[in-house]
Amino acid sequence: EAGVAQSPRYKIIEKRQSVAFWCNPISGHATLYWYQQILGQGPKLLIQFQNNGVVDDSQLPKDRFSAERLKGVDSTLKIQPAKLEDSAVYLCASSLDPRGAHGYTFGSGTRLTVV
Amino acid sequence: DQQVKQNSPSLSVQEGRISILNCDYTNSMFDYFLWYKKYPAEGPTFLISISSIKDKNEDGRFTVFLNKSAKHLSLHIVPSQPGDSAVYFCAATTGNQFYFGTGTSLTVIP
């Protein structure tokens, strides 16, 4: 079974620039998540999709972050404009179970450095 | 507000001994608890979970214990192996809300 694919693996941008991350979940997984993991902290949920609908985006900084999941498969997460504090690993995950109670499958993440 | 806490940032254990990783939580509404393992430069990997109606779940060398009255969760790894060296995250969920602890870095010394 192919895993969750994310790209790029690494990205360095200057503050106020824009950046986009891409995620391809496991085939058949209706639920997709984007997490932000700042160094030394646990992953923080940014947004959860069920198919192409948003289930939870309460912790997404909507003034600068946006995400979409067209056709209920691939997803993109965008930051515009980036701030220094956005430096983190952005993890995409997917699951069969919308509650995630039996575990998610995570991608390898995109490490973003904002300078 | 940190609803899931892992108070030990790191742990070192001799190979072959038991590793015990601890996790505390505050929300009595959590209905599933999970442990994830993370190697550097990789995403977290699901390890084992337990429903709130159980007090123990075992999978090979990994056993998770849940003490609901104490709001405490632990992961036991027996015997520990050098390949177990990683960061372990405790997580808890209720409905669509999912909370992670800050992780414990386990080092298994050969």
Helix percent of chain B reads under 10%
- Contiguous runs where pLDDT drops below 50 for at least 5 residues of chain B: none
The assigned structural class of chain A equals mainly beta
Cα Rg of chain A: 13 Å
**What is the distance, rounded to the nearest whole angstrom, between the alpha carbons of the first and last residues of chain A?**
37 Å
Furnish the topology, listing elements before pairings.
The complex is a heterodimer of chains A (115) and B (110).
Chain A: E1 5-7, E2 10-13, E3 19-24, E4 31-37, E5 44-50, E6 53-56, E7 65-68, E8 75-79, E9 88-95, E10 105-106, E11 110-114
Parallel strand pairs in A: 2-11
Antiparallel strand pairs in A: 1-3, 3-8, 4-5, 4-9, 5-6, 7-8, 9-10, 9-11
Chain B: E1 4-5, E2 10-14, E3 19-25, E4 32-38, E5 45-51, E6 56-59, E7 62-67, E8 72-77, E9 86-94, E10 97-100, E11 104-109
What does this structure look like?
The complex is a heterodimer of chains A (115) and B (110). Chain A contains no helices and eleven strands. In chain A, strand 4 and strand 5 form a beta hairpin. Chain A has 115 residues and is mostly beta strands. The relative contact order of chain A is 0.33. The termini of chain A are far apart. In chain B, 0% of the residues lie in helices and 57% in strands. The mean pLDDT of chain B is 91. In chain B, the strands form two sheets. In chain B, strands 2, 4, 5, 9, 10 and 11 form a six-stranded mixed β-sheet that branches. Chain B has a five-stranded antiparallel β-sheet with strand order 1-3-8-7-6, with no helix packed on it. Chain B starts with a strand and ends with a strand. Chain B is globular, with a radius of gyration of 13 Å. Chain B has 110 residues and is mainly beta. Chain B has strands at 4-5, 10-14, 19-25, 32-38, 45-51, 56-59, 62-67, 72-77, 86-94, 97-100, 104-109. Classes of the chains: A mainly beta (115), B mainly beta (110). Chain A binds chain B through residues 4, 33, 40-45, 48, 55-56, 91, 93, 98-109, and chain B through 4, 31-32, 34, 36, 41-46, 49, 51, 89, 91, 93, 95-103.
